[in-house]
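Researcher: Please predict.
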Amino acid sequence: MREENLIVSVWRGDGEQGEYVDYRVPREESQTVLDVVTYIQRKIDPTLSYRFSCRVGMCGSCAMTVNGKPRWTCRTHVSKVAPDGKLSVGPLRIMNVVKDLSVEMSDFFEKWVRAEGRFHPTKTRYDDFDAIKPADNKRKIASAGIECIGCGICYSGCDVVAWKAEYLGPAALNRAWTLVNDVRDGGQIARLNAIAGDAGCHACHSQQGCVENCPKHLNPTASIAGLKRVTAFAALKGGLK
């Protein structure tokens, strides 16, 4: 007979100080991990802090560590990850904990800035639109990584980030790769110099934790491999500082 309740261990604490606290939560059909966390906050302990928004896998803000793996809690069904009725929910690894399940993501997004992960326009609003055909090879390469929503799951699951804090990480480098392949962008020299250093693409060990964990099924490892190639060519041609 299946247990009627879930035993849920939830990380409680501020910063680096805290512990896992157990809660009993009624088991429901089609229940998600976010449903469980919400039940605890609304029915058992209103002081529990966590972050969510859309609840349908569009924003990525509900990302947490579920049974040791970073996941979107809104799209993770309890039946898939806790068939034995036991569930562990903690904050994303690597990121600083603000309180309980909420983490500070400033470092994550600042690395996008350091990787020149922004579009550098080459035209003004008064110019005609560039017509980029979907079949264009560079456009297809850019499109393969463009669906990243910045949830931080690949970053949390990256062992290189865990031991090398200055490493830009898979999300920022994936973004840089999409822009490298955007023929409209004018920031390529600055971008290649930004991602070619010790904390950039060459620090990646190709362990593919980012690929394994990405809820959007993107391949940041392939993007980083592409950056390694273009920075190597740029260095041979004297294009890097």
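Model: The mean pLDDT is 94.
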